[in-house]
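Example 258, ligand S-adenosylmethionine.
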Amino acid sequence: MDYSGFKAEVYKLSGIDLNAYKEKQMLRRIDSLISRNAFTGYIDFIDELKINQRLYNDFINYLTINVSEFYRNPGQWEVLEKEILPKLLDKNKNIKIWSSAASTGDEPYTLVMVLNKFLPLDRIKILATDIDKEALAKAKTGVYAERSIKGLPKTYFDKYFQKCGEDSYRVIEDVKRCVEFKQMNLLSDKYPEALDLIVCRNVLIYFTEEAKDSIYKKFNRSLVDDGILFVGSTEQIIGSQKYDFKAIKTFFYQKSKV
Ligand SMILES: C[S@@+](CC[C@H](N)C(=O)[O-])C[C@H]1O[C@@H](n2cnc3c(N)ncnc32)[C@H](O)[C@@H]1O
């Protein structure tokens, strides 16, 4: 079986279309996983994936790259707090926010903490989605090791976490209640609508240009006029006007009125 056959099998098993991910990077990761687990090739690896739930979970985890942390790239969160949110909230206090590759929850919970500077917690509702069920399960528990929280300003840490083990900290229930987690594939599922802010960070780097093109268009349709797309630190959109997005700050794009 060659890589094309392998991609077809993975799609049947998981619904993940590897054609949409950059091939060189994916191949390197998959080949290293296969040899690390001492399989001889794609055929016996796929056969084992079909019957071995643990290997399957490890594979999906490995493929989806769940690395995240609270307040990742602090400068961008400061721009969100000081420049983007005040304008959005000026127009509408009930803003709709979607964290679209939420991984283990660090990002949507950070959003709640920053928004809480403007709104009471019982007014905050964030939709957080990811393709990876295991990451979402961890997100729902809301328990993190210190390394996930080390970049978070102390005021947030003191206010929103409780120590619950040697090296584990739990996000308080009032913050957890603000986030609704759902499994969703950015490549194939229907997107939510009438959003004021979409956060999509550190996932588009793994996708091909065609996949990104289609995602930007769908993001644009999902936003209200003047709605904002917040991307990751290496994910600036080249030629954003093509998607009716105006760069208003580095990493922040505003939907243009048509
Ligand atoms: C590196 S993490 C980024 C987490 C967070 N946004 C951040 O910046 O810290 C990438 C996430 O994208 C998710 N992902 C990968 N492919 C996806 C897809 N097709 N649809 C939805 N999520 C996907 C992965 O499961 C993973 O949790």
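Summary: The pocket of S-adenosylmethionine is lined by residues 64-68, 72, 101, 103, 106-107, 130-132, 135, 185-187, 201-203, 232 (CB under 6 Å).
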